């Protein structure tokens, strides 16, 4: 493959420029155009061959096709950038010999180092966010792992509808952080078995706003903030905290709502066992158009049918844990919160 | 007593940011002199001057923030250094053959290099100002002075035929000058930083060098490349070499981006204890700010300072596992066993992140008295090995106790009383060095308020 691409690039260069050898002062700037075309040819041939290989060896389930495309474009561009290094080395070879190679490679190695640092920091970041979300969940046994699963489900929907790579990332964090505001709800309200008073219901309705308060200053979240704030809105406008309807609800919030409710239904709750996936899907379909955006319900169902869904284990509970768990789940569409009638 | 001794160490003129003012003044004087001299003798080689000026402006426009609230303009610095080290611009073949020998009259002067660099920097800074980003005059002055030092050393040599003809002489000479320039910039930045943050110069300089080293290597190599390449390729070299450095810059931008996000996120998520009613509003923020100030006072290096900040922000995260919040969240008022339980729970949470092992250890040991007088070690004591808690834990212990006593109050009298109370407990509970640093920080704060 290397030989083939090098041959094509060399052929293009000789055809356009006509001579071979160490470039001198006279060959500039005329050499730049042919070199750029040759580099382009090299990159295109290289990527073409690479995709053929990938296509031949690809697994049957091509799930991340769309993300691959944007990644390929980025790779192509950076390869072109690296092509410029080649010209620099060639240009200075006549003057500095092998030192040219060393000098040109220094920035390249530094860039590599920075990219490695970036990757390491990103892994650390993800682990930290996940750990802190789990800290929030320790209050309630049943919701453990909920954030991670909602995050995963939202990403499944996003990929299914072909959302752009960076937005998928933001949505992933929105899923992890969507319930941090629940910490503002007093434990006794979360654990109450009977009907809720108006005040208690209001405290629950405020949790998306509390969540927003916490994560507001995290710069990169942007769109995710709107998702966290509105993830309990309903398409028919009867949700909270703002009562937005239809397209007024931010896209992220509509995605989160589907994944959030689905995970709630397929997890064990104190008042019922976990529902099987097909039943939860039927429930989603039932509320599609009133509570959920039908497009995202369809996308989610398609993704779950293809990839499956990892339900949390129905763990055995100790007596202590039984006393510290939520008696009602605000995420569960099949068992709406019961509020005392005021009249 | 300790406070008075400390005050004597500072000179009367040493008010806040005086270092930056001095540095800017020095750069300003140099610039005015250079512009006057250049105007007098006329601009030499206009095309190269304009090309490098544009490159420097472009580089300044693409300024980059580095971890720890630093700023760098790699492309501008590389361009300016290359201009200072430029021997001859290879040109169209006709001119090159007729003017093989460059006469002394045509060599660009050091003053011209300074002038072109400064103009490029100012033009590049204008768009930043236009969108309301503050100008970092001090940083720009440091960069200009670094370039100037190279220019004044190398320009007279550029006429020398030995340097011109033998790259074996030129390359080591130019490389050492580039290293010198980067050192000058690091020293000047460290001076300003030490002044601004009231940290020790020695410590700040080491941090500065450590952070600037990778990018500095890339900038230096690029500067050398362009200086040599300009001879072969003419001004086209500027465009070609910028591409590789751009790749480096993009990688660095993403790296420092994620670092910023990380810090923002930990700062934000530390607030969950406040929202949950476990601690007083602003407690984590105040403790972390105070802890970092104490840490600087004690000469802690930046990587550990960051760990200290994370640990201080999350020191109460263990309270999330309690079903009932402690009234007022004042952990200083509950029993030692409960304090230890909160610390252990918090450390467990942080341990989950795997990468923050050191932070978890700091949080775990935040309650231990600095000297083991009557503290009963738990079952993990043997595994730890070291006798006392880490310095960062001792700092958090003092800062936390101080904030529990004072809260958000800005009253200096109340702060002094709290410091006094901690001082009474330095026999075994609080580290006397930490409490002394705390009292210095507080003393300074009360001065600023007056």
Task: Describe what you observe in this structure.
The complex is a heterodimer of chains A (343) and B (450). Chain A is mainly alpha-helical and 343 residues long. In chain A, 63% of the residues lie in helices and 0% in strands. Chain A has helices at residues 2-17, 32-57, 65-96, 98-137, 146-160, 165-177, 187-190, 198-205, 207-215, 223-229, 251-265, 277-287, 294-307, 319-323. Chain B has two domains: 2-260; 271-372 and 381-449, Hypothetical protein af1432 (Orthogonal Bundle), CATH 1.10.3210.10. Mean pLDDT of chain B is 82; it is low at 1-15 and 92-104. Chain B has 450 residues and is an all-alpha fold. In chain B, β1 (64-66) and β2 form a beta hairpin. The two termini of chain B are 21 Å apart. In chain B, α9 (167-197) packs antiparallel against α10 and α13 (283-297) packs antiparallel against α14 (302-313).
The gist of it:
Chain A has helices at 2-17, 32-57, 65-96, 98-137, 146-160, 165-177, 187-190, 198-205, 207-215, 223-229, 251-265, 277-287, 294-307, 319-323. By secondary structure, chain A is mainly alpha-helical. Chain B has two domains: 2-260; 271-372 and 381-449, Hypothetical protein af1432 (Orthogonal Bundle).
Question: What secondary-structure arrangement, pairings included, does this model have?
Answer:
The complex is a heterodimer of chains A (343) and B (450).
Chain A: H1 2-17, H2 32-57, H3 65-96, H4 98-137, H5 146-160, H6 165-177, H7 187-190, H8 198-205, H9 207-215, H10 223-229, H11 251-265, H12 277-287, H13 294-307, H14 319-323
Chain B: H1 2-8, H2 18-41, H3 46-61, E1 64-66, E2 70-72, H4 74-85, H5 93-98, H6 110-130, H7 137-158, H8 161-165, H9 167-197, H10 201-233, H11 236-269, H12 272-275, H13 283-297, H14 302-313, H15 336-351, H16 357-364, H17 381-384, H18 391-406, H19 412-424, H20 432-449
Antiparallel strand pairs in B: 1-2
């Amino acid at each position: 493959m290397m030989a083939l691409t090098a041959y094509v690039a060399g052929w293009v260069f000789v055809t356009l420029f006509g001579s071979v050898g160490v470039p001198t002062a006279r060959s500039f700037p005329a050499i730049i155009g042919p070199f750029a075309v040759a580099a382009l040819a090299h990159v295109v041939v290289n990527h073409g061959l690479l995709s053929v290989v990938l296509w031949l060896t690809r697994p049957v389930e091509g799930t991340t096709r769309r993300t691959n495309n944007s990644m390929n474009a980025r790779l192509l561009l950076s390869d072109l950038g690296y092509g410029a290094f080649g010209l620099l080395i060639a240009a200075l070879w006549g003057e500095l010999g092998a030192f040219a190679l060393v000098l040109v490679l220094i920035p390249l190695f530094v860039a590599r180092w920075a990219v490695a640092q970036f990757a390491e920091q990103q892994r650390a970041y993800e682990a930290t966010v996940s750990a802190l979300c789990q800290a929030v969940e320790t209050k309630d046994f049943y919701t453990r792992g909920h954030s991670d699963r909602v995050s995963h489900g939202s990403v499944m929907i996003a990929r299914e509808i072909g959302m752009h790579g960076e937005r998928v990332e933001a949505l992933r964090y929105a899923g992890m952080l969507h319930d941090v505001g629940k910490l503002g709800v007093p434990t006794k309200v979360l654990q109450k078995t009977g009907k809720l008073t108006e005040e208690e219901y209001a405290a629950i309705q405020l949790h998306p706003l509390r969540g927003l308060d916490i994560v507001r200053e995290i710069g990169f979240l942007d769109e995710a903030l709107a998702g966290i704030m509105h993830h309990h809105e309903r398409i028919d406008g009867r949700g909270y905290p703002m009562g937005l309807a239809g397209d007024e609800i931010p896209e992220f919030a509509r995605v989160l709502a589907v994944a959030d409710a689905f995970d709630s239904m397929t997890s064990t709750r104190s008042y019922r066992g976990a529902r099987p996936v097909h039943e939860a899907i039927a429930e989603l379909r039932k509320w599609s158009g009133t509570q959920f955006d039908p497009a995202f319900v369809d996308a989610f169902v398609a993704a779950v049918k293809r990839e499956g869904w990892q339900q949390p284990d129905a763990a055995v509970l100790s007596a202590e844990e039984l006393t510290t768990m939520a008696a009602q789940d605000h995420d569960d569409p099949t068992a709406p919160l019961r509020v005392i009638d005021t009249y | 007593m300790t406070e008075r001794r400390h005050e004597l160490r500072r000179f009367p003129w040493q008010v806040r940011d005086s270092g930056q003012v001095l540095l800017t003044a020095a750069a300003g004087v140099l610039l005015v002199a250079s512009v006057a001299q250049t105007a007098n003798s006329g601009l030499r080689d206009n095309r190269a001057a304009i090309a490098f000026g544009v490159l420097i402006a472009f580089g300044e426009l693409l300024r980059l923030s580095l971890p720890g609230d630093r700023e760098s303009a790699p492309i501008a610095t590389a361009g300016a250094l290359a201009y200072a080290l430029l021997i001859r611009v290879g040109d169209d073949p006709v001119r090159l053959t007729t003017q093989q020998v460059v006469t002394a009259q045509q060599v660009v002067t050091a003053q011209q290099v300074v002038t072109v660099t400064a103009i490029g920097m100012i033009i590049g800074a204008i768009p930043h100002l236009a969108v309301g980003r503050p100008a970092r005059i001090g940083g720009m002055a440091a960069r200009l002075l670094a370039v100037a030092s190279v220019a004044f050393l190398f320009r007279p040599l550029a006429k020398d035929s030995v340097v011109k003809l033998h790259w074996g002489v030129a390359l080591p000479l130019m490389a050492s000058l580039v290293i010198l320039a980067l050192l000058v910039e690091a020293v000047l930045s460290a001076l300003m930083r030490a002044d601004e943050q009231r940290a020790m110069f020695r410590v700040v300089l080491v941090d500065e060098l450590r952070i600037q080293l990778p990018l500095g290597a890339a900038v230096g190599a690029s500067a050398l490349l362009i200086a040599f390449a300009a001879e072969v390729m003419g001004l086209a070299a500027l465009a070609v070499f910028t591409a590789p450095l751009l790749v480096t810059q993009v990688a660095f931008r993403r790296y420092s981006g994620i670092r910023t996000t990380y810090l923002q996120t930990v700062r934000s998520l530390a607030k969950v204890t406040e929202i949950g009613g476990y601690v007083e509003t602003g407690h984590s923020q105040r403790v972390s700010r105070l802890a970092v100030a104490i840490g600087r006072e004690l000469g802690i290096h930046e990587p550990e300072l960051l760990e200290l900040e994370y640990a201080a922000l999350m020191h109460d995260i263990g309270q999330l596992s309690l079903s009932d919040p402690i009234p007022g969240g004042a952990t200083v008022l509950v029993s030692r066993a409960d304090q230890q339980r909160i610390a252990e729970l918090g450390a467990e949470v942080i341990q989950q992140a795997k990468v923050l092992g050191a932070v978890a250890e700091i949080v775990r040991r935040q309650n231990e008295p600095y000297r083991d007088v009557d503290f009963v070690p738990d079952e993990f004591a043997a595994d730890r090995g070291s006798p006392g808690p880490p310095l960062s834990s001792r700092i958090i212990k003092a800062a936390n106790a101080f904030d529990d006593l004072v809260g958000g109050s800005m009253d200096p009298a109340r702060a002094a009383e709290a410091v006094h109370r901690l001082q009474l407990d330095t026999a075994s509970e609080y580290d006397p060095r930490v409490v002394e640093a705390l009292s210095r920080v507080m003393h300074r704060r009360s001065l600023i308020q007056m």
